[in-house]
Amino acid sequence: xxxxRAEDFRPRNRMYVAKETAREFIRQRPHDRIGxxxxxxxxxxxxxxxxxxxxxxxxxxxxxxGMAEDGTAIGMGLATCVARLKESRTPSKVxxxxxxxxxxxxxxxxxxxxELARVLGIRVYDPVLGRRMEMVxxxxxxxxxxxxxxxxxxxxxxxxxxDALTGIYAAIxxxxxxxxxxxxxxxxxxLGPLLLGCAAALMLLYGLCASTWxxxxx
Length: 218
Prior knowledge:
By secondary structure, the protein is an alpha/beta fold. It has helices at residues 14-27, 53-61, 74-85, 110-119, 132-137, 142-152, 162-175, 192-216, and strands spanning 34-39, 43-50, 93-96, 122-129, 156-159.
């Protein structure tokens, strides 16, 4: 939405800071399949779930204003995330829902999206950008965002500046840490045929030597 152009987050506008902090979060999760959904008047998948974070980084970098009509379709954005995560077999499914506005577009309202996430066991963490007085002026529905987090077992955060948003991502990273189960493969080589071959060769050598010695002896 146009509000993401606001330059109250250093060093540049909210969109830039949102992308950079998300990029750092992705770097901290190298073993996770991560996707990217963007929403304005509608929602669309910018990047499906992937382990190829180089591609994800490029698609994140390509996210910009004007890719969709102005608006804030929070419910549609959340529902799109749920649809992407629905088929995932991972035991831990998480959505980080970053917004600075109130739902004003889309056919799905935020609480319906939250219910879809809850049914599928998807936790939603929703940082909201902006200061409290500015939120009131912009009609940010903090109550709905808190309810989304509550229903899904996630958390609501208020990001007042760049440092706060960085700290929020770090907190989510700590909350969603899970052990990595590595599978170790060991290759066993059957040395039986090789040893039998060596034994046969030695026996043959012994036979040849014995014959030679027997031939030379008077």
